[in-house]
Amino acid sequence: MNISDVMIHINESLNEDARTTLENSLRKIDGVVSPRFNAGKEHLLLVAYDTEKTSTNALLEKTRAAGYTAQLVGM
Q: What domains can you pick out in the chain, each with its CATH number?
C-alpha cells in the first residue's frame, strides 16, 4: 500500500450536502482512503488514496462526472 494525497480545486460553490455527497462518491473508488473538505476552504478537496489502486486522473474524472468544474492543484 502506497498512500498519497492530492488536492482538487472545485470552481463551484458547494453547500454541505453537495460536499458530503461528493466525498461519499469518491469513497466508493477502490483505493480511496479519505476524501475531505476543510472548513473555510470549501473549494479545496483533499483526497488520501492508494496509488497502487487508483490515480489522480480517476479522482478528478469522478469529480467532473458529478458535474463540477475541477482541476488538480500543483500538477
A: 3-72 (3.30.70.100)
